[in-house]
Design brief:
heterotrimer; A mainly alpha (352); B mainly alpha (477); C mainly alpha (200); B: 2 strands; globular; C: 200 residues; mainly alpha; elongated
Chain lengths: 352, 477, 200
């Protein structure tokens, strides 16, 4: 049986083999991702519940563990209502446009040395390009809904994302200068040494700006003016229901995980062990695979997203713009100069 | 990769100007409206120092550097110094007017200086890339300058037209450049010229590209049939901006045409000569005839510009050193008269021809100056305009295009009519309301007098300017 | 090779169709979205030419930033399609003449006859680890240093021009100064007075 399967596999032409193999890899990335998105929503309700001294969901399944499944089933069976006067085609395309880039960006994310779907040189640029496309889903949704609230939300988000993308892009340029490469694997490998060699230290302002801009890009509290339930009901997805709404929801959480992952890869040594370079501890923890370290770090930032939401009140719109343009962009530009000089003069420790 | 570090001292004037602009830009933020005059003085200082830096680093040899992007030759030095001088006068004339119409903002001077920087870059450009970038730098500044008076509908409309047509022209120019780049594999003017002379079997594609380049140049020069924007922009823009566009930018337009057609595409001279003939004749005809029908002084001067562009094109299409000398001489002479004529318009804050009524009674000296400018534009001896026209015509005749010379003379004679009409209005028409009093500040009085006398002096002793223009070409060839 | 050709013709066709739709579609939002599609397809064509940096930069800059702002503006505009249509039909004849002339000329000149493999040798394919980002960086900061800097100046002028034309200082606007807000002292806001109890 095994023998015949292997022969069948060999009989397939090489290019088709490659195609099948790639598809398998994609499924291997996407399936756990979607599962973690589902449980991320559960974690959000639990953690925020804990912070607000309440229990969160407890009824579905043991201790509420089946809650996300129940939510998914509910959304699947709900009717998708298409508002009158809306642009039907665009209304239905919008959720797809929101989720596609959120998933496509994972193609270049390395999970360990060599463990990556597409090891391309311009990986960093690719990620930046894809995260910037995500905004189309929201804008089109807001416009196609034929609703004032949705439209307002879309307008707010368009301006916000474009503003924060600049700061984000500049922060990435800092990483690029420090690592001398745009390949995400190379960037992680450039941080080898110890926890102090990771880029969070030499690029501290860029690290913080990148993560905060990431929060703004994913339209999460305290930057969630596009939804702003107390101001414009639910913003751009006010007219969406059922699966169409669920896809927006998925895209938002997938994006949050993506931003956490990128922050870890770019600034916190990716899959590198935090005990690297420490004599005894390094040996003790040598058995832990890199992927586990990566996942742990991602989990921490995913938690920070929730922590922020539970802690801060929403920014006023002009304050968001002020922070993006007048604070973040000048800081990143100044720090780019600092990093550039450090690299040129081979500042010991990090860049020698 | 072996790369030779360029000689940065070659672009010291440009670097200085850019640094000054950035400094002025920052300083201007902290000035109140009453202190705005500081911006003006600093801008003048920047221009004067830039011109003296060009003079200081002047050499009589041709230097190409920055990997072929930059050229310094006597022509570039002459045009640069002249340009800075003209803009100094432009700013001087504009200052009081801007205060009157409440437009005395730092942006006027800053954008004006950026325009100068763009023109300096164009003058020293030695590749398609630099020509295009210099052109865009100039054009962007001009679009904003035209729209500077935001509350005026006329200005906004003019800026819009200028912007759209300018963008279209840039697109055409770029398309032509890409064709030539495709055929020759180079952006640098000298090697393009070399490549073209080597291969002649692909010339049809080269001409295809050349057509687009000529159209682009035609738009930027304002030659007929690509002149539609000129009258609207001259009329709609604040007069200070019209003064800038009407005088200083013509030097850059000349540089653009000379660099592209002579430095780069001289091998295609046969082909572009024919195209320029069409543009020149149409410009002469339309410019001179339509100007007669105008009642707005700025529109009239716009059409007069178009006809003068026709003359410059005539000189260039001759394709000889004499022709290029004549074109340069004509352009420089024209900028002196244009800056003076618009200067008088700006002093009177004139819109219509009737605003010149009885100027002789009110301010005889100013009327005399305007008389000189008009005579010079019409080409009446002994002003410099006469000599400039003479040179162009003799350059044309020397390449056996006598019929073109005849046409040029014919249309100039028609043109004399509307220039002399201004003179008639100033001297013989009675002023209807005597409420308006013309007052002249001292610096304005001196500069307008110098400007007018320069017209006369250069007309009597043309060899002063002539020697400079000749040197520019004889040395560099 | 065949696959590559099929892909090229597919994306080229989509590019041309979407570019046509940009001009002809009735709804300005649709036109803008078709422009996004056109840009995507040209990025793919660039990718097929192994110019991955330019392709991604095109998507990043045009799709990710410029077109978002385009959409932003177009959505807020109230464009009267009817008058636009009328103008379109009015100028259609002259537009067609120009279009046909240009098409014929371009088909005649821009083709394999003058730009074919006989005239220009096929460039040597680079190996897989070749990075054209590095090459571009090298050229930009050496050979093309001067134009590169001037391009930066043009961007500066664009900023100045945009601000000049849009910024209006309204004298009556009241601003909040965040640093002032942060540095308030409770003592300045609330004054606690000690009042002696009054006897009745």
């Amino acid at each position: 049986m095994e023998q015949s399967l292997l022969e069948l596999w060999k009989a397939i032409p090489a290019s088709l083999q490659w195609l099948i193999w790639t598809l398998v890899k994609i499924v291997l990335i996407i399936a756990p991702l979607l599962l973690s998105v589902a449980y991320y929503t559960f974690a959000e309700r639990k953690i925020i519940g804990f912070i607000q001294v309440r229990l969160g969901p407890t009824r579905v399944g043991p201790r509420g563990w089946l809650q996300p499944i129940a939510d998914a089933v509910k959304l699947l069976f709900k009717e998708i209502i298409i508002p009158s006067g809306s642009n039907k085609v665009l209304f239905l395309i919008a959720p797809a446009l929101a989720i596609a880039p959120a998933l496509a960006a994972w193609a270049v994310i390395p999970f360990d040395v060599g463990l990556v779907l597409a090891d391309i040189n311009a990986g960093l640029l690719y990620v930046l390009a894809l995260t910037s496309i995500g905004v189309y889903g929201v804008i089109i949704a807001g416009w196609a809904s034929n609703s004032k609230y949705a439209f307002l939300g879309a307008m707010r988000l368009a301006a916000q994302i474009v503003s924060y993308e600049l700061a984000m892009g500049f922060a990435l340029v800092g990483v690029l200068i420090a690592a001398q490469s745009m390949n995400l694997q190379q960037i992680v490998l450039a941080q080898q040494g110890s926890i102090l060699h990771w880029f969070w230290l030499p690029l501290l302002p860029l690290f913080m700006i990148y993560f905060i801009s990431g929060v703004a890009e994913t339209n999460r509290a305290p930057f969630d003016v596009a939804e702003g339930e107390s101001e414009i009901v639910a913003g751009f997805h006010v007219e969406y229901s059922g699966m169409a709404f669920a896809i927006f929801f998925l895209a938002e959480y997938a994006n949050m995980i993506l931003i956490s992952t990128l922050t870890v890869l770019l600034f916190l040594g990716g899959w590198l062990s935090p005990f690297q370079g420490i004599p005894v501890l390094e040996d003790w923890f040598a058995f832990v695979p890199g992927t586990i370290w990566l996942l742990l770090k991602i989990a921490f930032f995913a938690f920070v997203f929730l922590w922020l939401r539970a802690t801060f009140p929403r920014y006023r719109y002009d304050q968001i713009m002020r922070l993006g343009w007048k604070v973040f962009i000048p800081i990143t530009i100044v720090w780019l100069l600092v990093v550039g000089l450090a690299v040129v003069y081979q500042l010991p420790w990090w860049f020698d | 990769m072996n790369f030779e570090l360029p000689n940065f001292s070659l672009i010291i004037p440009e670097i200085f100007l850019l640094t000054m602009i950035c400094a002025i830009l920052l300083l201007d933020l902290f000035l109140t409206d009453k202190q705005r005059i500081v911006t003006y003085y600093l801008s003048q200082l920047a221009l004067v120092v830039t011109a003296s830096l060009v003079f200081f680093y002047h050499t009589s040899v041709v230097i190409v550097d920055f990997s072929g992007h930059f050229i310094q030759d006597p022509l570039s030095d002459l045009l640069k110094i002249f340009l800075c001088g003209i803009v100094v006068v432009v700013f001087l004339y504009s200052k009081d007017y801007l205060k009157q119409v409440n437009l005395l903002k730092g942006e006027f001077f800053i954008l004006g200086l950026f325009g100068v920087l763009g023109m300096l870059i164009m003058i020293s450009a030695h590749s398609f890339l630099m020509l295009y970038l210099g052109l865009e730098l100039l054009s962007l500044s001009l679009y904003a300058l035209v729209a500077l008076n935001r509350d005026s509908q006329l200005a906004s409309e003019a800026a819009m037209k200028y912007f759209i047509l300018g963008a279209l022209a840039s697109g055409l120019l770029l398309y032509g450049m890409s064709m030539l780049y495709g055929m020759t594999g180079s952006l640098e003017l000298a090697s393009i010229s070399e490549q073209i002379s080597k291969s002649d079997n692909n010339s049809i594609v080269l001409i295809f590209g050349l057509v687009f380049i000529i159209v682009g140049i035609g738009f930027k020069l304002g030659a007929v049939p690509f002149h539609m924007w000129v009258p609207d922009v001259y009329e709609g823009a604040p007069t200070a901006v019209t003064l800038y566009i009407g005088s200083a930018t013509k030097i850059a337009a000349l540089a653009l045409a000379l660099r592209l057609l002579v430095d780069g595409l001289i091998e295609l001279h046969h082909d572009w000569q024919g195209m320029l003939v069409v543009l020149a004749v149409l410009s002469l005809a339309v410019g001179n005839i339509v100007a007669i029908a105008q009642t707005n002084i700025k529109r009239m001067l716009a059409y007069s510009t178009i006809s003068h562009i026709g003359f410059v094109l005539l000189a260039i299409l001759a394709g000889t050193i004499d022709g290029y000398i004549a074109a340069t001489f004509y352009t420089l002479a024209y900028t002196i008269m244009a800056v003076g004529a618009f200067g008088v318009v700006i002093i009177l804050n004139a819109e219509n021809l009737t605003d010149f009524q009885g100027l002789n009674e009110q301010h005889p000296w100013l009327a005399l100056m305007m008389l000189l400018f008009m005579f010079s534009m019409a080409g009446v001896p002994p002003t410099v305009g006469f000599y400039a026209k003479l040179m162009v015509i003799s350059a044309i005749i020397s390449v056996d295009l006598t019929w073109l010379a005849v046409i040029a003379v014919l249309f100039s004679v028609i043109g004399v009519f509307y220039y002399l009409r201004i003179v008639k209005i100033m001297y013989f028409d009675k002023l209807e309301d005597c409420t308006q009093v013309v007052k002249l500040a001292t610096d304005m009085k001196w500069s307008i007098s110098l400007n007018g006398l320069a017209i006369l002096a250069l007309g009597l002793y043309p060899s002063a300017l002539m020697v400079l223009c000749t040197q520019a070409f004889v040395m560099s060839s | 090779m065949l696959l590559e050709q099929i892909l090229f013709y597919f994306f080229a066709t989509v590019l041309i169709l979407s570019a046509t739709m940009v001009v002809t579609s009735k709804n300005p939002i649709h036109a803008t979205l078709f422009l996004v599609l056109a840009i995507f397809n040209s990025a793919i064509l660039w990718l097929m030419l192994e110019a991955e940096f330019l392709a991604i930069a095109l998507v990043l800059v045009y799709v990710g930033a410029v077109m978002v702002l385009f959409l932003f503006v177009v959505m807020m505009l109230d464009i009267d399609i009817a008058t636009m249509r009328a103008h379109f039909i009015r100028y259609l004849p002259i537009g067609l003449v120009v279009f046909i002339t240009m098409m014929v000329e371009m088909i005649l000149f821009v083709g394999t006859r003058y730009f074919g493999l006989e005239q220009f040798a096929k460039p040597v394919a680079k190996s897989a680890d070749y990075s054209n980002i590095e090459e571009l960086g090298q050229v930009l900061y050496t050979v093309h240093l001067y134009p590169f800097e001037i391009a930066a100046v043009i961007l500066l002028v664009a900023i100045i021009a945009a601000i000049t034309l849009t910024l209006r200082h309204k004298p009556n606007t009241r601003y909040q100064d965040p640093s002032h807000q942060i540095h308030v002292d409770p003592k300045d806001r609330v004054e606690l007075l000690k009042m002696p109890a009054e006897k009745l």
